[in-house]
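Suppose a colleague, Dr. K., hands you the sequence of a protein chain of 254 amino acids and asks what its three-dimensional shape might be. Before reaching for any lab equipment, you can write down a predicted structure in token form. Begin with the sequence itself:
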Amino acid sequence: MPSHEGNGKTVFITGAAGGIGRALSVGFAAEGYEVVVSDIPAQLEGLRATCALVEAGGGKSHPTTGDVTSKQDCDRMVADAIGWTGHVDILVNCAGILHAKRLEDLSGEEWDRHIAINSRSVLYMTQAVLPDMRKRHWGRIINIASLAARQGIPTEGHYAASKAAVVTLTRVFAQEVGEDGINVNAICPGIILTEMAMNKLGGQEQVRFWEKATALRRLGQPEDVVGPAIFLASEKSDFVTGQALNVCGGLYFH
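The predicted structure, expressed as tokens, is then:
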């Protein structure tokens, strides 16, 4: 059964049809939060599967679909969430893509798509939830960035740039909305063994290589991101804002 940590609060999670987004949805529900899960319409079946996992654990969930690169869709999805529970207390911006390519081979369209989905979505979704959070003078925004934002990675320059923008948006939003009782933080996961990561790694040989590079001698599971996110959503993090927390098993130390 869910715990009482969430205390009736609602969390809105983008990119929730699988991977880290799904793990966060299940994890927040287990802590007593009501969960709004969102993704693009093509991922509706994945969203339903996420809702089934939430509800199997005794939690409450509500699916909504839309394009996070569209301000109109972001506003509509947040309005849908507020219509369901009456408020959005926590926003987790988790939607993201990575299609590896060397910068010299990258097209303008590929650059724009990564910036739109990974960065612009954070701007639009945050804008959408701010009025409701300001009304109650309380809110938490958690942006899933990446360890790639800390340093350039070959074949991921466009992805790294988009996630570095997420870290910067986090820092600036934190300064602009702090007086409204809203905390804004980011999580920078290292290598988390999602479908997207496995497509990039390519096989078990690369997995073993990167496992040896971490202090904990293992790579992350989506569930490893849940604890840090729960902390940043809770009142235990009242004095934490504008920060980007590495969750990487000791792959990076700056």
